[in-house]
Amino acid sequence: MTGGTRRMAYAQGIGTLAAGVALGVLATSTYFRLWEGGISKNESALFRFTPDLSTQSIRQLDPNFAVSYDRRTRIPLWTIEHLTRDTITMGNNVDRGKALFREDEQIHPFFRATLQDYRGSGFDRGHMIPSANHRHSQESMNRTFLLSNIAPQVGKGFNRDKWAQLETYVRALVKHYPGGLWILTGPLYLPRLDPIDNKLYVKYQVIGPNQVAVPTHFFKILIAQQKSGQLDIYSYLLPNEPIDKTLSLDEFLVAPELIEQNAGFLIITDKIHKNKIHAINKPWIDFKYDLPVRSQQQQKSLPLPSSSPSTSSAA
Fold first, then answer.
1. What value does the CA radius of gyration of the chain take, rounded to a whole number of Å?
2. Exposed (0-12), middle (13-18) or buried (19+): which is 240, by Cβ within 10 Å?
3. 162: which of 231, 241, 243, 295 fits an S-S bond (Cβ 3.0–4.6 Å)?
4. Are 204 and 213 spatial neighbours (Cβ–Cβ below 8 Å)?
5. Which residues contact residue 43 at a Cβ distance below 8 angstroms, ignoring those fewer than 6 apart?
6. What does the pLDDT look like over 122-137, one tens digit per residue?
7. What's the rounded Cα separation, in Å, for the pair 166 and 287?
8. Percentage helix, strand, coil, to 5, in the chain?
9. Catalytic annotation, pick one of 82, 127, 134, 217
10. Angle in degrees, CA 48, 49, 50, rounded to 5
11. Quick check: is 217 catalytic?
């Protein structure tokens, strides 16, 4: 091939690539306009083989809770549950020991977390929707153990301590709100300052063959309905790391806007009018924590990849 021929082939290749990129951008932007109801799919055969570009799957696992599952990270984006006195009341013959962690077979295998991902990771399998919140029936409790409701959490000092304390506090609040609580829970990946170059980076670990993401933080937002219909909102943000037991949960209250901006959703919308909000982040209930001691079986460790022992449990 002569030099001129090679240059022509190269130019043709670049032109084809540019056209491909342009078509890709056009198809992607048009796809989202399709999704938003801008135009009809039937208007063009171009979109016959448009790929499924959605990176999340919303799964209603139970009448009282649902999960927005992130296919990229293999953990939830967020979860929502409706908590009442009935849901937290222990049902007849309900036994947590019968509930087993298992894969969510409704998630495509390409995007699914597996038990192997957590084995030997050193992290707890942390519930976003706690099993104790839905112990009125064995079936509901079992559904909280689907891995689509699970994220890697530091065990000692977090999942088994401060995070468990927050979950216990939430169940205590239910008794004071006749309308119940709506609870949004999920992970965040927040930037941290690098001391070397003084720049912000978002860095997080991944575990297992499917590279399940380990969040840097977790949030929990409570929307509590008073008897009058007025709403109290509590928004908590905790780092996924051991936390000093002496710190009060009030230390982790943050403005709801901070979570909204980083989680990518809005809390105060036409569904929650501002005139319906009674208070934001104003705890008025004094509650003493009495965390239950877990059985030896529940404290079974998930060893670290190294030879050093781990204290992580399958929470």
1. 23
2. buried
3. 243
4. yes
5. none
6. 999 999 999 999 999 9
7. 11
8. 30, 25, 45
9. 127
10. 100
11. no
